[in-house]
Specification:
2-enoyl-CoA Hydratase, Chain A, domain 1, nine-stranded mixed sheet, 14 helices, 23 strands, 31% helix, disordered N terminus
Length: 510
């Protein structure tokens, strides 16, 4: 799978709103004459100073960093410039990472990661906690880039990158000009801006913008800790399958009906990573994926392919294999966590948490939201009952527990909830949206076949439109007892209620 689009990206972006901010700092390691750094930028200056004190250092390699603390980025970038080191970007180097990268006397990309995963990301300053834009810091960042881009500095591009920001997700992406020669740099003013509405800079590239000084891709031997792990749903797969060929033979025999299916299963190891196999939970059938950007992307695609077989009824599925690793423990552990957490739920003393009951009185749902899915939602939806945290906890602990649908459940979730990713997807084009609705209806009816049973939808927070969309879809499908937990995971966690591990078995839309 080349990329996950539409619903799963929406779900993940919304989920990230209530995922805690990075609390760990960068990992910095010296290997020969190279310093490797990965992860979020925090108060990491001392780590770099200690690494740079080692003899023979001449290169700093940044591996997949989302950025972070501006002060550290500027200090490390200046320190790199003072020492005359080279810098290399392996994978993505964003925000404060791009500032450190720009300190290099010579700068280039590496081929350690796929072309679409290899880029420099530039934007202006914002508060890392509130995410509010901080224009007062932009001139300092502007001056740093201008100094190191020299005569190639493009004021128009950099002004747009640093000053035209609707939120902290605004980003100018510049790719390596060797493998991505046809991909023009592009700037999105928001993390929610559709790609086709982002500004493209045709004719520009990392070299003629002065972001890199060398076009050649550097071959790297990444330290073990910097290589990507086989992680899905927030948990790393550690059990490598000892006899993969025998397991593939078993899967082919028990889950395939057609000879072509059996052949594809047995030859999955010959295909490029990342690879995954998902199998139907209670019948024959499976889904395959390969050539995906990440193990998670492969797992998601395999589940989706398994959920929606041609000319057959939809079904729930579980990932069984990812890159030769056993994924079945993910589901076993997740199910056990749900049982444990359900037994621990006690309705809280207050009705509402995290201000879930406020805001949205002037916002109306005139149909499904088809863009800006992270935004203030209405306080109520026609034909749907909005509930608070206390009421949901009471419903869960009642003898007749409702079906609880998490439309963004990649990681932790509400105990007893089932994830149906993409159930909140919606497209402005009615002809295309018809297919989205058909798949959503099929998966909802798979996990909740009784249209008269109470069903609850939730997402990240009161700013998550995908759960509102899913609830409105359910009303149209014919469910008669629809509830919307508007506060979502943010409110649930604010009430200090227990959570369970997520393990996706159903994906309505990609």
């Amino acid at each position: 799978m080349k990329k996950m689009i539409t619903a799963t990206v929406v779900a993940f972006a919304a989920y990230a709103m209530y995922t805690p901010s990075y609390t760990h700092a960068m990992t910095v390691e010296v290997q020969g004459n190279q310093v490797f750094a990965t992860g979020p930028v925090e108060d990491d200056l001392r780590k770099f100073e200690e690494a740079f004190a080692k003899p023979g250092i001449d290169t700093v390699v940044f591996v997949n960093s989302p950025g972070g603390d501006l002060w550290t980025g500027l200090r490390v970038g200046r320190l790199i410039a003072e020492k005359g080191y080279k810098t290399v970007a392996a994978g993505s180097c964003v925000s404060a990472c791009s500032i450190m990268f720009m300190g290099g006397k010579q700068r280039q990309f590496s081929d350690a990661f796929r072309p679409n995963q290899t880029f420099i990301g530039i934007h202006g300053a914002h508060d890392k906690d509130t995410k509010s834009i901080n224009p007062a810091m932009q001139p300092q960042i502007f001056a740093f880039y201008k100094q190191h881009m020299n005569e190639k500095f493009n004021a128009q591009v950099m002004n747009q990158a640093l000053y035209e920001m609707e939120d902290s997700g605004s980003l100018l992406r510049v790719f390596d000009p060797v493998r991505s020669a046809k991909v023009a740099p592009f700037h999105c003013v928001s993390s929610q801006t559709p790609r086709d509405k982002c500004s493209k800079f045709e004719g520009a590239d990392a070299l003629n913008l002065g972001i890199i000084t060398l076009p050649d891709l550097l071959k790297l031997n990444l330290p073990a800790a910097f290589k990507p792990s086989n992680t899905i749903f927030g948990r790393e797969l550690l059990s490598e399958i000892p006899d993969l060929a025998a397991l593939l033979e078993e899967i082919a025999d028990t889950k395939c009906v057609l000879p072509a299916c059996k052949e594809n299963v047995k030859k999955i190891t010959e295909r490029s990573e990342h690879r995954a196999i998902a199998v139907a939970a209670s019948t024959t059938g499976l889904g395959l994926a390969n050539n995906s950007d990440t193990p998670l992307a492969a797992a998601v695609r395999a589940i989706y392919n398994c959920n929606h077989p041609s000319n057959q009824l939809p079904r729930t599925c579980e990932v069984k294999i990812v890159n030769g690793f056993d994924a079945t423990g993910i589901y076993r552990d997740a199910d056990a966590s749900h049982v444990k957490a359900l037994a621990e739920i006690k309705p809280p003393s207050d009705k509402f948490y995290a201000n879930e009951e406020y805001g949205g009185n002037f916002t109306k749902a005139d149909g499904l939201r088809t863009e800006k899915f992270v935004d203030i939602t209405p306080s109520a939806l026609d034909g749907v009952k909005t509930i608070g945290t206390q009421e949901l906890a009471r419903m869960i602990t009642s003898p007749q527990r409702p079906v609880i649908v998490d439309v963004a459940g990649f990681f932790d979730t509400i105990p007893g909830a089932v994830a149906v990713l993409g159930a909140g997807a919606a497209l402005a084009d009615a002809s295309k949206d018809a297919a989205v609705e058909k798949r959503t209806e099929a998966m909802l009816k798979t996990v909740a076949p009784d249209l008269g049973r109470a069903i609850v939808f939730f997402c990240a927070s009161r700013n998550c439109w995908t759960s509102a969309n899913a609830a409105m879809r359910a009303r149209k499908i014919g469910y008669t007892q629809i509830y919307w937990y508007r506060g979502g995971m943010e409110a649930w966690k604010a009430a200090s209620l227990p959570t369970a591990s997520g393990a996706v078995r159903a994906i309505a839309n990609l």
